Amino acid sequence: MYVIMEVMKMDEMDRKQIDHLVNIYRVMNQKTFGFRFSATIVGGRTRLQRLIEKGEIRTEKKSVSQNGKLYCNASDVLRYAVA
After folding, report:
1. Do 33 and 70 contact (CB within 8 A), yes or no?
2. pTM, whole model, 2 decimals?
3. Burial level of 20, CB count in 10 A (0-12/13-18/19+)?
4. What is the mean pLDDT of each run of 10 residues along the chain (83 residues)?
């Protein structure tokens, strides 16, 4: 009986953690990070460029100039974060 209670508590905790992560991704979907900051989060510039080329990370340029700053979607960047 005690083991079943522990398993139920673990399932509850897992659901809470998953819900919390979903909320974080939902909030951060409206935010952007700069290219360099995003590169540090995902593990380097090369990896970030590969993820952008694959379409895994959405980007936007807020200015029309050729050398304008590139912004990455924060939710996408966090999804591919490396510790």
Report:
1. no
2. 0.79
3. exposed
4. 51 81 94 97 97 97 90 97 91
